[in-house]
Design a protein that fits this description.
The chain is of the alpha/beta class and 480 residues long. The protein has 17 helices and ten strands.
């Protein structure tokens, strides 16, 4: 049976939840969902991500959130405290380890026990939230003073999200498309969307039975490598629609930095404007939309000064785009998992640039207007075709569109992705589509994209292809 975009009944949610909670013993700790709702009611409103983001948007402020997560709870608490005291983070992350993201809880447990036995401390690449359980998560909540964000990026999010929500987390990052296509090869896209429907419907339950406004966020960067803005925006809007159907009313559209200031600033504006337009047309009312700008997610320079410069560029673009929040990086991205101090530095530098640019605007010009027109046309064409092939259904359309190559994510390992679309950078570092594959990019837009790539090819005496692609991937590393 094909996936469809229809609101789950409460009966279906609770029936499936009974099975979800059996996936790991800590599921027994959260059987009483009403107790979890009461726990959220006891939290200060300033610890609710929906409230903080809505207020920031009203006040025209850009917030800052880093990434970060380690597998020892006390160490994670210290990490989060450092991000606040030394960095000034507005929302606090809990990045989840790879085993937990894929519901491999037994392997996560073995890694925890091995680390404890050998005295190696944190050996996972994030917090194994399911294994540590709700009481430990509430310990994190009660020793921090900002909204907690579950940065899951999980193809298998159900028990993970359930436990983290019960633990006091008020925001969950991820989605059925953006947490599957960049990370897995054989997992079903339709099943992934269905698992994330569970998460969104569960979050709506908190509102229906307790008035708790919870926040969802699409993971904008996707694979983080040469993703054309029209692809990012179309996917982010589709994930928003899927969540709104399940009752989510506070949603952040995600976008990953490409590196060209004009293109990225225009993309943030187009993403929000077009999403509002589509939601209105689909009948979704009173949705609080915000935007997340992710600092560069591609290959980072090893040189610390170059890395810091790249972070500063991302901070500048995010601030001038008026994004609701900037997700920061650290100068040690190319070396491995950053320390708390490195992470805090990225937050602090980003906050300083936001403050310095307060009130500044990136003035509109003919180039920006042209970019906006072309980006809207390309994104609308893709979305129109997705809805057409799905008979108006966003979930069905998404699955069929990836199968047909109408949606195509560069460098995705997934068998559900055609990988026909090829993109390059132009002379100014903007991402352009070289070969659209089966993506329905209008002819006018393709002529514009082709012209931009040809200008670079002529100037640098390089043809579109492998060598140009390699240059693009390594553009900010200093190694090309």
């Amino acid at each position: 049976m094909e996936i469809t975009n229809h609101r789950w009944s409460e009966k279906r949610l609770l029936k499936e939840r009974q099975e979800v909670l059996k996936q790991w013993p800590t599921g027994e700790q959260i059987i009483d969902i009403d107790e979890a709702i009461e726990y959220h009611k006891s939290m200060p409103i300033e610890h609710n991500a929906s409230f903080v983001l809505a207020k920031a948007k009203k006040d025209k402020k850009t917030l800052v959130q880093p990434r970060g997560g380690v597998n020892i709870v006390d160490d994670h608490i210290q990490l989060l405290k450092t991000l606040v005291t030394e960095g000034g983070a507005d929302l606090l992350p809990t990045t989840i380890d790879s085993y937990t993201r894929n519901a491999r809880f037994d392997e996560a447990q073995r890694a925890i026990e091995m680390g404890t036995k050998k005295g190696n401390g944190s050996i996972l690449n994030g917090l194994p939230a399911v294994n540590v359980g709700v009481n430990e998560l509430r310990k994190i909540k009660e020793q921090t003073d900002a909204p907690l964000v579950a940065r899951t990026c999980a193809p298998y999010p159900r028990l993970l999200a359930d436990i983290m929500l019960a633990g006091g987390y008020s925001s969950v990052e991820g989605g059925g498309i953006t947490c599957l296509m960049p990370y897995t090869k054989t997992d079903s896209l339709g099943k992934s969307i269905e698992r994330w429907q569970y998460v969104a419907r569960l979050m709506r339950y908190y509102y229906d039975h307790g008035g708790i406004e919870l926040h969802r966020e699409s993971y904008g960067p996707c694979t983080g490598v040469l993703i054309p803005p029209c692809i990012t925006i179309a996917i982010s809007i589709l994930e928003c629609i899927l969540d709104c159907e399940q009752g989510i009313t506070n949603y952040s559209l995600g976008y990953g930095m490409g590196g060209n200031m004009t293109q990225d600033i225009v993309a943030i504006k187009v993403m929000e404007d077009l999403c509002k337009e589509v939601l209105e047309a689909k009948g979704y009312k009173n949705i609080e939309l915000t935007t997340y700008f992710h600092q560069y997610m591609g290959a980072f320079p090893k040189d610390e000064e170059k890395a810091l410069s790249l972070i500063m560029l991302g901070a500048t673009i995010g601030a001038l785009s008026n994004a609701s929040l900037i997700v920061t990086k650290s100068t040690h991205e190319a070396h491995g998992i950053p320390t708390a101090a490195n992470n805090a530095q990225g937050v602090r530098v980003t906050r300083n640039i936001i403050d310095m640019l307060s009130g500044e605007k990136y003035g509109s010009n003919d180039e920006m207007k042209k970019e906006e027109i072309m980006l809207k046309k390309a994104t609308k064409s893709i979305l129109d075709r997705v809805f057409e092939i799905g008979d108006g259904d966003a979930a069905l359309g998404t699955v069929r569109a990836f199968k047909a190559g109408i949606l195509d994510m560069p460098f995705s390992p997934s068998n559900y992705n055609k990988n026909l679309l090829i993109s390059h950078k132009d002379l100014r570092g903007a991402i352009r589509i070289s070969n659209p594959g089966n993506v329905p990019v209008p002819q006018e837009v393709m002529l514009h994209e082709t012209k931009k790539i040809e200008e670079r090819a002529k100037r640098h005496n390089i043809k579109p292809g492998y060598n140009m692609l390699l240059e693009d991937i390594l553009a900010f590393t200093g190694r090309n």
